[in-house]
Amino acid sequence: MGSPSFSMKHPTSFFDVPETERNDRVQYNDDLCMITPRENDTTEDPIYYIRCILEIPIKGASEPFMWGVWITQSKENFERYIETFEANQSNEKSSGWLLVDLPFYNNARTGEPLTHLECEVHWGPKGQRPKVSLWENSHQLAVD
């Protein structure tokens, strides 16, 4: 029996898109998400996400607690990830941002922006989700 794990079905930004616009602006599956700006909005770029695993060690347990999270990627890394998705990606990695909207780790008060934590994504073997390591910082999620 392994340790518990939780997963976020959608990136947090998914909910920033009005429900009536999601069919036109969000391309999504279990592993990838692209959110495009409104049709005439030239001030924003699309946001690219890949789904990853963030492991949190548990004292006294052999298995870590795992969060299924969405990490932003540059357009170039997102496209490269898709192109090599069916191959062994063990030697591949990229950097990205985790928008922290997780129970017990969200430091933002209502109406305040959420914390963005920089991280490294290790793409991994074929058929496995990439793993995330947060860059060292004082946020409790990175400390844990």
Describe this structure in words.
- The protein has helices spanning 22-25, 75-83, 140-143, and strands spanning 5-7, 26-28, 32-35, 47-56, 65-73, 89-100, 115-124, 131-134.
- By secondary structure, the protein is mainly β.
- It has one domain (5-143).
- Strands 1, 2, 3, 4, 5, 6, 7 and 8 form an 8-stranded mixed β-sheet that branches.
- A hairpin with an 8-residue loop joins strand 4 (47-56) and strand 5 (65-73).
- It is globular.
- The relative contact order is 0.17.
- The mean pLDDT is 87.
Reported for the largest beta sheet, the result is: 8 strands, mixed
Question: How many H/I helical runs?
Answer: 3
The gross shape turns out to be: globular
What share of the residues lie within helices? 10-25%
Oligomer: single chain
Number of domains: 1
A few lines on this structure:
12% of the residues lie in helices and 38% in strands. It is mainly beta and 144 residues long.
What labels would you give this structure?
38% strand, 3 helices, eight-stranded mixed β-sheet, mainly beta, 144 residues
Secondary structure layout:
Blueprint: E1 5-7, H1 22-25, E2 26-28, E3 32-35, E4 47-56, E5 65-73, H2 75-83, E6 89-100, E7 115-124, E8 131-134, H3 140-143
Parallel strand pairs: 1-5, 4-8
Antiparallel strand pairs: 2-3, 3-4, 4-5, 6-7, 7-8
